[in-house]
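name: query_chain
kind: protein
chains: 1
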Amino acid sequence: MSFIMSSLGKADKQVLTEILQRRFALLNDIEKVKKELKETEEEIIQIDRGKTIEKDQLRHGIKKFNNHPTAGIDFLVEVGRLERTPHNIAKFLFETSSLNKTSLGIYLGDGNDFAIEVLNEFGQLHDFTGQSLDVALRRFLISFRLPGEAQKIDRMMECFASRYCDCNQNVFQNRDTCYILSFAIIMMNTSLHNPSVKEKPTAEQFISMNRGVNNGEDLPEQMLRNLFEGIKQEPFKIPQEDTVDNTFFNPDLEGWLLKQGGRYKTWKKRWFVLVGNCLYYFEYPSDKEPKGIIPLQNLDVREVVDQRKVNCFEIFIPVTGQSQMIKAAKTTGGRMHEGRHSTYIMSAPTVKERSDWIRGIR
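structure:
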Protein backbone atom coordinates (compact mmCIF):
# COMPACT_ATOMS: atom_id res chain seq x y z
CA MET A 1 0.00 0.00 0.00
CA SER A 2 2.87 2.41 0.83
CA PHE A 3 4.42 1.66 -2.59
CA ILE A 4 1.14 2.49 -4.32
CA MET A 5 0.71 5.68 -2.33
CA SER A 6 4.23 6.89 -3.16
CA SER A 7 3.60 6.48 -6.87
CA LEU A 8 0.46 8.60 -6.82
CA GLY A 9 0.11 12.30 -7.28
CA LYS A 10 -1.22 14.58 -4.52
CA ALA A 11 -4.78 14.68 -5.93
CA ASP A 12 -4.91 10.90 -6.39
CA LYS A 13 -3.61 10.40 -2.87
CA GLN A 14 -6.43 12.56 -1.56
CA VAL A 15 -9.04 10.59 -3.51
CA LEU A 16 -7.63 7.24 -2.30
CA THR A 17 -7.52 8.48 1.30
CA GLU A 18 -11.17 9.50 1.09
CA ILE A 19 -12.09 6.10 -0.39
CA LEU A 20 -10.28 4.32 2.44
CA GLN A 21 -11.99 6.52 5.03
CA ARG A 22 -15.43 5.83 3.53
CA ARG A 23 -14.62 2.13 3.45
CA PHE A 24 -13.62 2.18 7.11
CA ALA A 25 -16.80 4.09 8.04
CA LEU A 26 -18.91 1.66 6.02
CA LEU A 27 -17.34 -1.32 7.76
CA ASN A 28 -18.09 0.30 11.11
CA ASP A 29 -21.70 0.84 10.07
CA ILE A 30 -21.99 -2.79 8.97
CA GLU A 31 -20.69 -3.98 12.34
CA LYS A 32 -23.19 -1.73 14.13
CA VAL A 33 -26.06 -3.14 12.02
CA LYS A 34 -24.88 -6.70 12.75
CA LYS A 35 -24.82 -5.94 16.47
CA GLU A 36 -28.29 -4.38 16.35
CA LEU A 37 -29.64 -7.36 14.38
CA LYS A 38 -28.16 -9.76 16.91
CA GLU A 39 -29.67 -7.80 19.80
CA THR A 40 -33.06 -7.73 18.04
CA GLU A 41 -32.87 -11.47 17.37
CA GLU A 42 -32.09 -12.12 21.04
CA GLU A 43 -35.04 -9.94 22.08
CA ILE A 44 -37.36 -11.87 19.72
CA ILE A 45 -36.08 -15.18 21.12
CA GLN A 46 -36.73 -13.96 24.67
CA ILE A 47 -40.24 -12.80 23.74
CA ASP A 48 -41.03 -16.14 22.03
CA ARG A 49 -39.61 -18.02 25.01
CA GLY A 50 -41.75 -15.94 27.34
CA LYS A 51 -44.87 -16.61 25.27
CA THR A 52 -44.10 -20.35 25.25
CA ILE A 53 -43.72 -20.37 29.04
CA GLU A 54 -47.02 -18.52 29.41
CA LYS A 55 -48.82 -21.02 27.15
CA ASP A 56 -47.28 -23.96 29.02
CA GLN A 57 -48.34 -22.49 32.36
CA LEU A 58 -51.89 -21.93 31.11
CA ARG A 59 -52.19 -25.46 29.74
CA HIS A 60 -50.81 -26.92 32.96
CA GLY A 61 -53.23 -24.79 35.00
CA ILE A 62 -56.19 -26.00 32.91
CA LYS A 63 -55.13 -29.60 33.44
CA LYS A 64 -54.89 -29.02 37.18
CA PHE A 65 -58.31 -27.34 37.21
CA ASN A 66 -59.91 -30.25 35.37
CA ASN A 67 -58.72 -32.61 38.11
CA HIS A 68 -58.88 -30.29 41.13
CA PRO A 69 -60.60 -26.94 40.42
CA THR A 70 -59.27 -24.96 43.40
CA ALA A 71 -55.70 -26.21 42.87
CA GLY A 72 -55.87 -25.18 39.21
CA ILE A 73 -57.01 -21.63 40.04
CA ASP A 74 -54.38 -21.33 42.80
CA PHE A 75 -51.65 -22.40 40.35
CA LEU A 76 -52.72 -19.92 37.67
CA VAL A 77 -52.82 -17.10 40.22
CA GLU A 78 -49.41 -18.10 41.58
CA VAL A 79 -47.72 -18.00 38.15
CA GLY A 80 -49.41 -14.71 37.25
CA ARG A 81 -51.82 -15.97 34.58
CA LEU A 82 -54.85 -14.95 36.65
CA GLU A 83 -55.70 -12.21 39.13
CA ARG A 84 -57.47 -13.39 42.25
CA THR A 85 -60.58 -11.30 41.68
CA PRO A 86 -64.12 -12.66 41.15
CA HIS A 87 -64.46 -10.94 37.76
CA ASN A 88 -61.09 -12.11 36.42
CA ILE A 89 -61.63 -15.72 37.46
CA ALA A 90 -65.24 -15.74 36.21
CA LYS A 91 -64.09 -14.42 32.83
CA PHE A 92 -61.49 -17.20 32.62
CA LEU A 93 -64.12 -19.84 33.47
CA PHE A 94 -66.58 -18.37 30.95
CA GLU A 95 -64.14 -18.04 28.02
CA THR A 96 -61.92 -21.16 28.38
CA SER A 97 -63.60 -23.88 26.34
CA SER A 98 -61.21 -26.69 27.38
CA LEU A 99 -62.31 -26.61 31.02
CA ASN A 100 -64.04 -29.70 32.36
CA LYS A 101 -67.81 -29.00 32.75
CA THR A 102 -68.03 -31.06 35.94
CA SER A 103 -65.07 -29.24 37.49
CA LEU A 104 -66.69 -25.94 36.49
CA GLY A 105 -69.87 -26.90 38.33
CA ILE A 106 -67.87 -27.95 41.39
CA TYR A 107 -65.99 -24.64 41.55
CA LEU A 108 -69.02 -22.42 40.86
CA GLY A 109 -71.13 -24.35 43.36
CA ASP A 110 -68.73 -23.94 46.28
CA GLY A 111 -70.42 -22.23 49.19
CA ASN A 112 -67.62 -19.94 50.37
CA ASP A 113 -68.06 -16.18 49.96
CA PHE A 114 -65.43 -15.81 47.23
CA ALA A 115 -66.87 -18.64 45.09
CA ILE A 116 -70.36 -17.10 45.39
CA GLU A 117 -68.95 -13.79 44.11
CA VAL A 118 -67.32 -15.67 41.20
CA LEU A 119 -70.67 -17.37 40.44
CA ASN A 120 -72.46 -14.01 40.37
CA GLU A 121 -69.80 -12.56 38.04
CA PHE A 122 -70.08 -15.69 35.87
CA GLY A 123 -73.83 -15.09 35.59
CA GLN A 124 -73.26 -11.46 34.57
CA LEU A 125 -71.22 -12.62 31.57
CA HIS A 126 -74.32 -14.22 30.02
CA ASP A 127 -76.56 -12.03 27.88
CA PHE A 128 -80.17 -13.27 27.89
CA THR A 129 -81.71 -10.12 26.44
CA GLY A 130 -84.81 -10.88 24.38
CA GLN A 131 -84.61 -14.64 24.89
CA SER A 132 -87.45 -16.80 26.14
CA LEU A 133 -86.89 -18.37 29.54
CA ASP A 134 -86.33 -21.90 28.24
CA VAL A 135 -83.77 -20.75 25.63
CA ALA A 136 -81.87 -18.72 28.23
CA LEU A 137 -81.95 -21.60 30.71
CA ARG A 138 -80.59 -23.98 28.07
CA ARG A 139 -77.68 -21.62 27.43
CA PHE A 140 -76.93 -21.27 31.13
CA LEU A 141 -77.04 -24.99 31.93
CA ILE A 142 -74.87 -25.99 28.95
CA SER A 143 -72.01 -23.81 30.20
CA PHE A 144 -71.28 -26.14 33.16
CA ARG A 145 -72.61 -29.34 34.70
CA LEU A 146 -75.15 -28.69 37.43
CA PRO A 147 -73.94 -30.33 40.68
CA GLY A 148 -76.17 -32.74 42.58
CA GLU A 149 -76.32 -30.97 45.95
CA ALA A 150 -79.55 -29.06 46.58
CA GLN A 151 -77.87 -26.00 48.13
CA LYS A 152 -75.52 -25.61 45.17
CA ILE A 153 -78.36 -25.96 42.67
CA ASP A 154 -80.34 -23.38 44.62
CA ARG A 155 -77.50 -20.81 44.46
CA MET A 156 -76.98 -21.39 40.74
CA MET A 157 -80.69 -21.05 39.92
CA GLU A 158 -80.87 -17.84 41.97
CA CYS A 159 -77.90 -16.55 39.96
CA PHE A 160 -79.65 -17.43 36.70
CA ALA A 161 -82.97 -15.87 37.74
CA SER A 162 -81.26 -12.67 38.83
CA ARG A 163 -79.39 -12.30 35.55
CA TYR A 164 -82.41 -13.19 33.40
CA CYS A 165 -84.53 -10.56 35.11
CA ASP A 166 -81.79 -7.96 34.70
CA CYS A 167 -81.74 -8.66 30.96
CA ASN A 168 -85.55 -8.86 30.62
CA GLN A 169 -87.05 -6.47 33.15
CA ASN A 170 -90.68 -6.53 31.97
CA VAL A 171 -91.25 -10.30 31.81
CA PHE A 172 -91.83 -11.14 35.52
CA GLN A 173 -92.95 -9.08 38.48
CA ASN A 174 -90.00 -10.29 40.57
CA ARG A 175 -87.03 -12.65 40.52
CA ASP A 176 -88.75 -15.28 42.64
CA THR A 177 -91.20 -15.88 39.79
CA CYS A 178 -88.33 -16.53 37.39
CA TYR A 179 -86.62 -18.77 39.95
CA ILE A 180 -89.74 -20.90 40.57
CA LEU A 181 -90.61 -21.19 36.87
CA SER A 182 -87.02 -22.19 36.00
CA PHE A 183 -87.20 -25.06 38.47
CA ALA A 184 -90.59 -26.05 37.02
CA ILE A 185 -89.02 -26.16 33.53
CA ILE A 186 -86.22 -28.46 34.72
CA MET A 187 -88.73 -30.77 36.44
CA MET A 188 -90.96 -30.80 33.35
CA ASN A 189 -87.97 -31.61 31.14
CA THR A 190 -87.19 -34.64 33.32
CA SER A 191 -90.81 -35.83 33.36
CA LEU A 192 -91.21 -35.50 29.58
CA HIS A 193 -87.95 -37.14 28.54
CA ASN A 194 -87.10 -39.64 31.27
CA PRO A 195 -88.00 -43.14 29.95
CA SER A 196 -88.85 -44.34 33.47
CA VAL A 197 -91.71 -41.82 33.69
CA LYS A 198 -94.61 -43.65 32.05
CA GLU A 199 -97.39 -41.06 32.38
CA LYS A 200 -96.20 -37.93 30.62
CA PRO A 201 -97.54 -34.57 31.89
CA THR A 202 -99.68 -32.37 29.66
CA ALA A 203 -99.54 -28.66 28.88
CA GLU A 204 -102.63 -28.14 31.05
CA GLN A 205 -100.88 -29.76 34.03
CA PHE A 206 -97.82 -27.52 33.50
CA ILE A 207 -100.04 -24.44 33.37
CA SER A 208 -101.94 -25.57 36.47
CA MET A 209 -98.80 -26.20 38.55
CA ASN A 210 -97.60 -22.64 37.85
CA ARG A 211 -100.79 -20.77 38.79
CA GLY A 212 -100.19 -17.80 41.07
CA VAL A 213 -96.39 -17.88 40.85
CA ASN A 214 -96.16 -14.32 39.49
CA ASN A 215 -96.41 -12.59 42.84
CA GLY A 216 -99.83 -14.14 43.41
CA GLU A 217 -101.00 -13.66 39.84
CA ASP A 218 -101.08 -16.07 36.90
CA LEU A 219 -98.56 -15.89 34.10
CA PRO A 220 -99.92 -15.55 30.53
CA GLU A 221 -101.26 -18.95 29.49
CA GLN A 222 -99.77 -18.72 26.00
CA MET A 223 -96.33 -18.07 27.45
CA LEU A 224 -96.55 -21.22 29.63
CA ARG A 225 -97.89 -23.25 26.70
CA ASN A 226 -94.98 -22.09 24.52
CA LEU A 227 -92.51 -23.04 27.23
CA PHE A 228 -94.09 -26.50 27.55
CA GLU A 229 -94.05 -27.12 23.79
CA GLY A 230 -90.43 -25.98 23.55
CA ILE A 231 -89.38 -28.44 26.26
CA LYS A 232 -91.46 -31.24 24.75
CA GLN A 233 -90.00 -30.82 21.26
CA GLU A 234 -86.38 -30.43 22.34
CA PRO A 235 -85.03 -31.83 25.62
CA PHE A 236 -82.39 -29.91 27.54
CA LYS A 237 -78.85 -30.85 26.54
CA ILE A 238 -77.30 -30.84 29.98
CA PRO A 239 -73.56 -31.74 29.81
CA GLN A 240 -72.88 -35.36 30.63
CA GLU A 241 -70.70 -35.97 33.65
CA ASP A 242 -67.08 -35.79 32.52
CA THR A 243 -64.95 -38.79 33.33
CA VAL A 244 -62.12 -37.07 35.10
CA ASP A 245 -59.09 -39.27 34.58
CA ASN A 246 -56.98 -39.12 37.72
CA THR A 247 -54.29 -41.37 36.27
CA PHE A 248 -52.08 -38.39 35.47
CA PHE A 249 -53.03 -36.14 38.40
CA ASN A 250 -50.43 -37.38 40.91
CA PRO A 251 -47.56 -38.54 38.69
CA ASP A 252 -44.17 -39.67 39.94
CA LEU A 253 -42.57 -37.15 37.57
CA GLU A 254 -43.72 -34.82 34.79
CA GLY A 255 -42.18 -32.19 32.54
CA TRP A 256 -41.13 -31.13 29.04
CA LEU A 257 -38.66 -33.25 27.06
CA LEU A 258 -37.53 -33.30 23.44
CA LYS A 259 -38.18 -36.73 21.90
CA GLN A 260 -36.37 -38.05 18.84
CA GLY A 261 -38.61 -39.64 16.23
CA GLY A 262 -38.39 -43.32 15.32
CA ARG A 263 -38.51 -43.45 11.53
CA TYR A 264 -37.64 -39.79 10.94
CA LYS A 265 -34.97 -38.54 13.34
CA THR A 266 -36.64 -35.20 14.01
CA TRP A 267 -37.02 -33.77 17.52
CA LYS A 268 -40.42 -32.86 18.94
CA LYS A 269 -41.29 -31.20 22.23
CA ARG A 270 -43.61 -33.38 24.31
CA TRP A 271 -45.04 -33.26 27.84
CA PHE A 272 -43.97 -36.47 29.60
CA VAL A 273 -45.70 -38.02 32.61
CA LEU A 274 -44.20 -40.93 34.58
CA VAL A 275 -46.78 -42.98 36.48
CA GLY A 276 -45.60 -46.20 38.10
CA ASN A 277 -43.96 -48.38 35.49
CA CYS A 278 -45.34 -46.52 32.49
CA LEU A 279 -44.22 -43.37 30.65
CA TYR A 280 -46.86 -41.30 28.82
CA TYR A 281 -46.29 -38.33 26.53
CA PHE A 282 -48.70 -35.61 25.41
CA GLU A 283 -48.58 -32.75 22.94
CA TYR A 284 -49.71 -30.33 25.69
CA PRO A 285 -50.07 -30.64 29.49
CA SER A 286 -53.83 -29.97 29.24
CA ASP A 287 -54.46 -32.89 26.82
CA LYS A 288 -56.67 -35.66 28.22
CA GLU A 289 -55.37 -38.40 25.93
CA PRO A 290 -51.65 -39.21 25.52
CA LYS A 291 -49.92 -39.16 22.13
CA GLY A 292 -47.95 -42.24 23.15
CA ILE A 293 -47.43 -44.83 25.89
CA ILE A 294 -44.11 -46.50 26.75
CA PRO A 295 -44.38 -49.46 29.17
CA LEU A 296 -41.06 -49.53 31.05
CA GLN A 297 -41.08 -53.18 32.07
CA ASN A 298 -37.84 -54.92 31.01
CA LEU A 299 -36.36 -51.63 29.75
CA ASP A 300 -33.34 -49.72 31.02
CA VAL A 301 -32.14 -46.11 30.79
CA ARG A 302 -28.72 -44.46 30.43
CA GLU A 303 -27.05 -41.18 29.57
CA VAL A 304 -26.06 -40.69 25.92
CA VAL A 305 -24.26 -37.96 23.97
CA ASP A 306 -25.85 -36.33 20.94
CA GLN A 307 -24.03 -33.78 18.79
CA ARG A 308 -27.14 -31.63 18.29
CA LYS A 309 -28.92 -31.85 21.67
CA VAL A 310 -27.81 -31.54 25.29
CA ASN A 311 -28.67 -33.55 28.42
CA CYS A 312 -29.73 -36.64 26.46
CA PHE A 313 -30.73 -40.03 27.82
CA GLU A 314 -31.85 -43.25 26.16
CA ILE A 315 -34.49 -45.84 27.03
CA PHE A 316 -33.45 -49.18 25.58
CA ILE A 317 -33.81 -52.98 25.74
CA PRO A 318 -30.85 -54.23 27.84
CA VAL A 319 -30.08 -57.33 25.76
CA THR A 320 -27.38 -58.01 23.18
CA GLY A 321 -27.84 -59.58 19.78
CA GLN A 322 -30.67 -59.06 17.32
CA SER A 323 -32.33 -55.63 17.33
CA GLN A 324 -35.84 -55.56 18.83
CA MET A 325 -38.66 -53.06 18.83
CA ILE A 326 -39.86 -51.64 22.14
CA LYS A 327 -43.48 -52.63 22.79
CA ALA A 328 -44.98 -49.15 22.87
CA ALA A 329 -48.02 -47.46 21.37
CA LYS A 330 -48.75 -44.07 19.80
CA THR A 331 -51.71 -42.29 18.26
CA THR A 332 -51.84 -40.91 14.73
CA GLY A 333 -54.98 -39.30 13.38
CA GLY A 334 -56.92 -40.41 16.45
CA ARG A 335 -56.00 -44.09 16.01
CA MET A 336 -53.71 -46.09 18.28
CA HIS A 337 -50.98 -48.22 16.70
CA GLU A 338 -47.68 -49.82 17.61
CA GLY A 339 -44.62 -47.57 17.88
CA ARG A 340 -41.49 -48.10 15.76
CA HIS A 341 -38.65 -47.54 18.21
CA SER A 342 -35.77 -49.83 19.08
CA THR A 343 -34.72 -47.10 21.53
CA TYR A 344 -36.14 -43.80 22.76
CA ILE A 345 -33.78 -40.85 22.97
CA MET A 346 -34.85 -37.77 24.92
CA SER A 347 -33.25 -34.42 25.67
CA ALA A 348 -33.93 -32.72 29.02
CA PRO A 349 -33.73 -28.93 29.58
CA THR A 350 -31.11 -29.26 32.35
CA VAL A 351 -28.59 -31.76 33.73
CA LYS A 352 -30.60 -32.03 36.96
CA GLU A 353 -33.82 -32.85 35.08
CA ARG A 354 -32.01 -35.53 33.09
CA SER A 355 -30.80 -37.08 36.37
CA ASP A 356 -34.33 -36.91 37.80
CA TRP A 357 -35.79 -38.69 34.77
CA ILE A 358 -33.12 -41.40 34.76
CA ARG A 359 -33.60 -42.00 38.48
CA GLY A 360 -37.40 -42.02 38.14
CA ILE A 361 -37.42 -44.45 35.19
CA ARG A 362 -35.02 -46.83 36.93
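note: Residues 86 and 118 are 4 Å apart (CA to CA).
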